[in-house]
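Human: Here is a favour to ask of a fellow structure person. Comparing notes only helps if you start from a blank page. Give me a protein, with the fold worked out from its sequence. Please set it down just below, with no commentary around it:

Assistant:
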Amino acid sequence: MKNPYLPLLATVQNVKTETYDTTTFTLLLDDEEERREFSHRPGQFMEVSVFGTGEAPFCISSSSHGRDTLDITVRKIGRVTSALHSLGEGDKVGIRGPLGNWFPFEEVEGKHMLFVVGGLGLAPLRPQIQDAYRERDRFASIKVLYGARTPQDLVYGDELEEWQQADGMECLLTVDAATDGWTGNVGVVGTLLEKVALDVPETIAFVCGPPIMIRFVVRDLVGLGFGEDAIVTSLERHMRCGIGKCNHCMIGDKYVCLDGPVFTYRQMKAMMEFEE
């Protein structure tokens, strides 16, 4: 595979609205050879350039299995993300990647997989869930606990419905504030931990979401008896340049973009990302 730091040209193939401020863009590398060589793992990210505006890091929010396109799911919050939201099918972007490390997969075969996710934190974990769902016979169980502020803030609605109905998989949803028509759970995502049976010693927990949500969920998991190496998360929110030069993502003695963005709770504690 070629140097991931060298830019590649890609075309927007599809634009899907997830929520009022969040959109999933499906990208296709223009060069066929580069397309064949490009391989990524769940948890990795790319730097995406909107020409004339700038570049920003985004997790790859789709599995690489059986497809040659790449998804990024983008919330409109700044200059580059706003420029991305102005693009349509056929527009060009630049990408660099894949970058960073990834979530463990083969290493947790035979164990229970627990995903505790808030808001757009589902984007970096979506490829891991897709791969686990596709190969669910390799794992003891798969449980997805997903929460958002309101029902309108839930992303990947079609997949959530599929996961809720799938054999060999458990998917529970919650919202902080219900709106008309919502009949599901109301409360923070941690409240869903009480609604599932957990074999804690044989479970790996994948946690992603807003910082305050991660902090409280990790506290809950530790209280349930999860070990420090059995809790895994992504700290991609800190990243900017993707090459360890801007110092924006430096935590302790680590660069999130170079040493992560995937870390265990043990590693996060050593980085002072979490207090005792």
